[in-house]
Write a structure and sequence with these properties.
Blueprint lengths: L9 E6 L3 H13 L26 E5 L3 H13 L20
Antiparallel strand pairs: 1-2
Length: 98
């Protein structure tokens, strides 16, 4: 099944803190029927690198789906199901001795 190409504008609805968070949010949007292509080479979308002005942590959707996407993301981020990513201190971090 081929995806129909559209000339509709793409907008950024959220900037994830990490690439992992971006993948989780994109998957959440996809499950709600909102396409949000990533920009990493493993993604099956035709765009392999972020276009100028976009980052790989930017969550982008079609402008017509932006309001729904923002609502879904806000609900997710305020829910108890939101992914909490903890950073481990560097092994030689003097402020966090092992």
């Amino acid at each position: 099944m081929s995806q129909e190409r559209t000339r509709e504008r793409v907008v950024t609805v959220h900037q994830a803190g990490t690439a992992t968070e971006a993948v989780v949010i994109r998957s959440l949007l996809e499950s709600a029927g909102i396409s949000s292509p990533g920009f990493v080479s493993a993604e099956p979308f035709p765009m392999r690198e972020p276009p100028e002005g976009f980052l790989d942590t930017d969550i982008v959707v079609l402008e017509s789906q932006a309001e729904d996407a923002r609502r879904i993301i806000a609900e997710y981020l305020t829910s108890s199901e939101a992914v909490q990513i903890e950073e481990s201190p560097a092994p030689d971090d003097p402020e966090n001795p092992a």
